[in-house]
Amino acid sequence: MKPESAHTQLSTQEAYVKEHKRYHNKITLCRLTIFLLFLTVWELAADLKRIDAFFFSSPSRVLSCLLELVTEKNLFLHIGITLYETIISFLLVFLFGMLTATLLWYSEGISEILEPYLVVLNSLPKSALAPLFIVWLGTGSLTIVVAGISVAVFGSIISLYTGFKSVDAEKITLIYTLGGSKKDAFTKVVLPASIPTVLSTMKVNIGLALVGVIIGEFLAARRGLGYLIIYGSQVFQMHMVITSVILLCLIAMGLYLSIGYAEHFYKKKTGIK
Q1: 0.70 cut: is pTM over it?
Q2: Which fold does the domain 53-270 belong to in CATH?
Q3: At residue 98, does pLDDT exceed 60?
Q4: What is the pLDDT of residues 118-176, one digit of tens each?
Q5: What pLDDT does 273 receive?
Q6: What is the CA radius of gyration of the chain?
Q7: Handedness of CA 186, 189, 195, 197 (dihedral sign)
Q8: Distance CA 246, CA 9 (A)
């Protein structure tokens, strides 16, 4: 390759990188602008009595409530408990989902038997199960973790199993042709090919686990952000409710981004676009 051609190619790549960064910065700026505009309109509407601040609060009242929760009501303890229960639920969903999906892939007979049950259980409104969990398990962290698991686990099994089954059948046949076992086909072909599916399923499950935990905390907790939401609504402290909801949004975003970074690292390491 001539020096001029190499220099031209390098300049083109640098220009592309700069353009991509400019585009990303524009997107970030637009997001921040929309967010700040929303806060401004919300604050002005509350101050000008266009909305009832008692029911809808305002950014300044939310900030004041946040500071009060930090100093007087152990906010970080509530956040830590909700995070702990969510992460435990998520890890158990991942473990049980992977094991069950692997079993279904290994045995076509078992998959045909269990498939309708999985579809029905996945479609069942999980909030309807929460009162049963309280009766069976009592009030406490165990009930909340089980509630978190119940929301995510059946969809996780279905998604993972579908991902395993969608792997190129010719590659699996090649393993068998070369004398490999079903275990070899799974560990050397199916599982590596399904890593993107596993990661995308994890991104969904972390949010669903948080939803299940909050449902459990609504009914069976004395600590956690779900408890703060219920307590705030019972004593008509809407500032506390909205503050807790905003914190849940931030937690959900952080958990989602953590899985997203893991996915980005894997794709970068393996060269997948």
Answers
A1: yes
A2: MetI-like fold (1.10.3720)
A3: yes
A4: 989 888 887 788 888 888 888 888 899 999 999 999 999 999 999 999 888 888 888 88
A5: 56
A6: 24
A7: negative
A8: 47
- Tell the residue number behind the tokens 């004395």, with chain if given: 222
**Distance between CA atoms of 94 and 205, rounded to whole angstroms?**
8
Tokens of 47: 């101050």
pLDDT of 14-32, one tens digit each? Answer: 777 778 788 888 998 998 9
H/E element holding 92? helix 75-106
Domain coordinates in residue numbering, the chain: 1-51, 53-270
Look up tokens 């676009």; give the residue: 273
Q: What is the C-alpha separation between 191 and 72, in angstroms, rounded?
A: 49
How many whole angstroms separate alpha carbon 8 and alpha carbon 14? 10
Q: Which two tokens stand for residue 192?
A: 């590596």
| CB-count exposure of residue 194 (10 Å: 0-12, 13-18, 19+) | buried
